[in-house]
Amino acid sequence: MKFIIDREPELDTSRIPKKLIRYPSPDPSSASQTRHIAMFEYTSPVDEPTHLYLNGKPYSYPATETPRAGTSEVWYVINLTQDNHPLHIHLGLFKVLDQTEIKDLGEFKDCMLKINDAERCHLSRHARGKKVDVRAHENGWKNVYKMMPGYMTKILVRFAYIHSNSSYVFDATAEPGYVYHCHILDHEDNVMMRPLKFIN
């Protein structure tokens, strides 16, 4: 990026407003869809990490997350790895509602690696551990949030403008579409990313 500095002084008439935008409180009952998003790490026979997937699928597979523009969804993000993963959802702002430790994580992870179905692997029976409060500085609408290892993080995702509750002024359904991914560069380069396809 190139900056050109003007030699003549310029009068700045801008002012900080007395009142900033007040974002609405999250309303999980407004969600039109509930999804489970599982974070997987795969290793070699000598236990070296080889790649990371979201919901057990590579990026090249067709989109399975197809939100409707202008709606809200509840996502249960299940981190089955040993790392914090800052999840970033393109075109989505979200509020963290709950962070719950997964009990008997090894048993739940083994089941997920076999059938990749949180409900059939009895997530509700395992997500009963300690709760972790969201820190004060993180307790707002976000577009990136660190998903704790061994925890299920419940988020309310809004696929619309938060301040006006209106849908996007552009066509969110247009190709090539959008993505959600781990925001650690090495991880997204190792396929911890999935397509996000908006529908009308």
UniProtKB/TrEMBL annotation:
Q: Which UniProt keywords apply?
A: Copper, Endoplasmic reticulum, Glycoprotein, Membrane, Metal-binding, Oxidoreductase, Signal
Task: Please indicate which superkingdom the organism of origin belongs to.
Answer: Eukaryota
Primary location group: endoplasmic reticulum
Which Gene Ontology biological process is one annotated for this entry? cellular response to phosphate starvation
Gene3D superfamilies from the xrefs?
Cupredoxins - blue copper proteins
Domain called Plastocyanin-like: residue spans: 38-196
Q: Which is one Gene Ontology cellular component term of this protein?
A: endoplasmic reticulum membrane
Where does the record place it?
A: Endoplasmic reticulum membrane
For activity, the cofactor(s) needed are:
Cu cation
Molecular function GO labels:
copper ion binding; oxidoreductase activity
Q: How does it sit in the membrane?
A: Peripheral membrane protein
Q: Which Pfam families match?
A: Cu-oxidase_2 (PF07731)
Similarity-based family:
Belongs to the multicopper oxidase family.
UniProt name for this protein: Plastocyanin-like domain-containing protein
